[in-house]
Design a protein that fits this description.
Elements lengths: L1 E6 L2 E4 L4 E9 L6 E7 L6 E6 L6 E3 L7 E6 L4 E6 L8 E8 L11 E2 L3 E6 L1
Parallel strand pairs: 2-11
Antiparallel strand pairs: 1-3, 3-8, 4-5, 4-9, 5-6, 7-8, 9-10, 9-11
């Protein structure tokens, strides 16, 4: 079992930045690829970014490419999502997830956090 707890969400104005964190506990964090997903009201959960176990590979959704950066610190069992130039359309509940493969798909992940709310005002 892996427990994931997100933090860092909040209310910001368009153009601002936020950094989300996801702290993991349980089985060896370094063995898991980590992903960030988001879900806006009335919409399906969508892929945002993923990072491989060693952090040597990352993939981003086209909608966030160039604005968001995923990173991890295996020594701290933590994955981050740095979000810059936030837009109103980025508002959603953001979830981190852990799984065996760094895939841009919900199906690739086994463990999920409870989510953190990001609100962006225009």
């Amino acid at each position: 079992q892996v427990q994931l707890v997100e933090s860092g969400g909040g209310l910001v104005q368009a153009g601002a930045s936020l950094r989300l964190s996801c702290a993991a506990s349980g089985r060896a964090f370094r063995n898991y690829a980590m992903g960030w997903f988001r879900q806006a009201p009335g919409k399906e959960r969508e892929f945002v970014a993923t990072i491989s176990q060693s952090a040597s590979n990352t993939v981003y959704a086209d909608s966030v490419k160039g604005r968001f950066t995923i990173s991890r610190e295996n020594a701290k069992n933590t994955v981050y999502l740095q979000m810059n130039s936030l837009r109103p359309e980025d508002a959603a509940v953001y979830y981190c997830a852990a799984g065996p493969l760094w895939l841009p798909s919900i199906r690739g992940y086994t463990y999920w956090g409870q989510g953190t709310q990001v609100t962006v005002s225009s």
